[in-house]
Amino acid sequence: MHPNPSYRSDDRALMETLLDEIGFGTVFLTTPDGPRVAHTPLVSTGDGAVQFHIARANALARHLDGATALAVINGPDAYVSPRWYSNRKTVPTWDYISLELEGRVRHMDDDGLEALLHTLIERGETRLGGDQWNAQETPADIWAKLFGAIRGFELEILAWRPTLKLHQGTTAEDRANIASGLENSGSPALAQLMRTLAP
User: Fold this and answer.
1) Distances in Å between the alpha carbon of 64 and those of 59, 84, 120, 136, 151?
2) What span is annotated as the signal peptide, if there is one (predicted)?
3) Domain 5-194: what homologous superfamily?
4) pLDDT digits (tens, 9 = 90+) for 1-10
């Protein structure tokens, strides 16, 4: 998390929206074998936890149950050029959205993992629109084989640490110019967040 307190937020609804919209993150844990990481889809339970799955062969799989881990969800980010400031005598920086979730992890049973997979499938297929794929299209033997190759986990969130670095503290004119610069250079999502979230 960025040390500047003006980049933080207590807006839980915003954090839940980031979780839902991005839906993918990184889980970190220090293990007896050293620091390890997994990249995984994440689903909020809506009551203070996130669920995810990783391959059984992942180096984290045997260490997560009962551990305290860190999940990180990265939102849009972009380089910010001094050319967008009213006074160009400064240096470049990077604006970004990130959410850190720290909490205790527990292994999910097979029923919980099955439900998680169907939630992920429904979310992904709905976002694609059109003729949706259905899990029943996978033969039972193939589903069972692939299901056996993963493990499901739930992280009970004990700390929410968002960073919304959107040029808070600069002038409204500079923020408007930076937002336009971001939009014109291919970062419209970050520009929109700057216009709606930065004071």
Assistant:
1) 10, 45, 21, 30, 10
2) none
3) Electron Transport, Fmn-binding Protein; Chain A (2.30.110.10)
4) 888 999 999 9
